[in-house]
Design brief:
Blueprint (H helix, E strand, L loop, with lengths): L1 H13 L7 H9 L4 H15 L8 H9 L7 H5 L3 H9 L5 H11 L7 H10 L24 H10 L5 H12 L8 H11 L4 H18 L5 H7 L3 H5 L8 H14 L5 H10 L4 H20 L26 H12 L6
Helix pairs in contact: 1-2, 1-3, 6-12, 7-8, 15-16, 16-17
Length: about 350
């Protein structure tokens, strides 16, 4: 049926890696459901379950699900969050329930420094290990000459030192040809020439995860709504200011997406919306659509901002991703398939 192919191709453009069985689409067609409704329903299923649900098996699955306990540890429910996973990786000696607790208490979309607050609290953790997430001696494969007190002394002098980097430099120190290497020499060398800080490593890992998400976009609707329970209200609120990083991302993305619209007009729209990406994107889309409608009608009263004949060269995306911006961008992209 032509409608089946049409729906499959439309969804495949949005979810290229998801299998879309033709028989599932055909079942929806046979229910006399409108094409737009079918696309919306299947898209929602993919966002929620990661796949198109076969409606023919719904009753059997519901019966099975009713006999399966629904409770699960809180940590399991949140491990899909890349930021939380980064905290697990870096603060690997801190109990995960402590990390989960700090994450749940301090994560706040209205606080631009929530991530730093979580890191600072974990750095101040005073459990069996020190605040800097030092590894216990039984986790280190070191020669018999290993002296724990000396290794710990590094953190007494440099509390923000990355433990992995500290271990690497300490092992080099132990291999020094001198029969009695002086730890003060190593400490002085680290202070004078610089060293890897734990916060820097954490930020680097976080940015790498964000970049990976940009290369392989993921949109987890449940996790998204935990952070932004009222996305329409939050993303379209012009009274709240955004960071300079967010402004830069919003401008470059819109300038690239609307490459024939004058730069000055894009800046003006962003300024009018207090640099909020979602309402600025909506206005540009409406103007772009109106312009082409008027062009087809050969109207002399088209858009006051005539499009350029030649598109601009694309601008480079900032090297450090802005997490909030990309969450907004994902929301805008999938907004047509979500019901709010």
């Amino acid at each position: 049926h032509p409608s089946v192919i049409l729906i499959r191709d439309r969804l495949r453009d949005i979810f290229p890696g998801v299998k879309l069985p033709l028989e599932v689409i055909g079942w929806h067609i046979r229910q006399s459901t409108p094409i737009e409704t079918i696309c919306s329903n299947i898209a929602t299923e993919i966002l929620v379950y990661g796949q198109a649900v076969d409606p023919r098996n719904t009753q059997a699955e519901e019966h099975t699900a009713s006999n399966v306990p629904t409770t699960a540890p809180k940590s399991i429910a949140t491990t899909n969050d890349d930021t939380l996973q980064t905290l697990y990786d870096v603060f690997n000696s801190i109990p995960r329930d402590h990390i989960d607790n700090a994450y749940a208490r301090l994560r706040d979309a209205n606080n631009p420094n929530w991530y730093d607050d979580i890191v600072n609290e974990l750095l101040s953790y005073n459990g069996a290990n020190s605040a800097t997430n030092k590894r216990s001696t039984d986790q280190m494969i070191v020669d018999d000459v290993f002296v724990p007190d000396e290794y710990n002394r590094l953190f007494a002098v440099l509390p923000d030192l990355d433990p992995d980097y500290a271990l690497e430099r300490y092992m080099q120190y132990l291999e020094h040809p001198s029969s009695k290497p002086d730890l003060n020499v190593l400490i002085t060398n680290l202070i004078e020439h610089g060293y890897v800080k734990l916060t820097e490593k954490l930020e680097c890992l976080r940015n790498e995860r964000l970049k990976q998400n940009l290369r392989e976009p993921k949109f987890e609707i449940n996790e998204f709504l935990k952070t932004f329970p009222n996305p329409l209200e939050y993303f379209y609120d012009r009274t709240k200011n955004v960071s300079e990083s967010y402004k830069s991302h919003a401008f470059i993305y819109l300038a690239n997406a609307f490459a024939r619209v004058p730069i000055g007009h894009i800046r003006e729209i962003l300024s009018n919306h207090n640099y909020r990406f979602a309402p600025a994107m909506k206005q540009l889309q409406e103007e772009f659509q109106e312009y082409h409608i008027n062009q087809r009608k050969k109207s002399r009263h088209s858009s006051p901002h005539t499009l350029k004949h030649r598109a601009r060269v694309p601008m480079a995306i900032p090297d450090v991703p802005d997490e909030i911006f990309y969450k907004v961008k994902s929301f805008v992209f999938y907004q047509a398939f979500l019901s709010f």
